[in-house]
Amino acid sequence: MRVIALAVLACLAVAGCGSTSSTDEPTIPPEIASAVDPSPTHPSSGMPVPSEVPGEEFGTVFTARPDIVRAHPTPFESWSRADGNKVAIHFVTGTPECYGADATVTETDTTVTISLRTGSLPESADKMCILVAVFGTLEVPLQAPLGDRRVING
């Protein structure tokens, strides 16, 4: 009797997993699709397009460190307008006792492309570092006021 019950359940499971034609597939409404993938990518670089957020202070403030080691490109998630000719970029990295960040900027009339790199501090090479994610902020100087230019990941 147990074998028959298992066979019936198996048949029901297989019947429930049948395929549907492409016309029967549900479509995802645009408002749900944007919630599923809220970060569009830039067409030429494939990097996420960061969003502007209000200028309040976010997370741990990092100072630019061009001497970081084992550096790798890190996309920033958002940015804020800062005082003067600066923008503040917001990203995730390790603790500032062991990890640092640096950025290079390329400016045009329409865009400000910021390439963020994060890596280890040279003085932490022989230290034990905890693996904790930190939401960080780095102020990046610009050659000209931001105005209405777009800020994008490099």
Automatic annotation (TrEMBL):
Residues 18-52 are annotated as: Disordered. The keyword Signal applies. Keywords: Signal. Residues 1-15 form the signal peptide. This is Large secreted protein. It comes from Rhodococcus oxybenzonivorans. The lineage of its organism: Bacteria, Bacillati, Actinomycetota, Actinomycetes, Mycobacteriales.
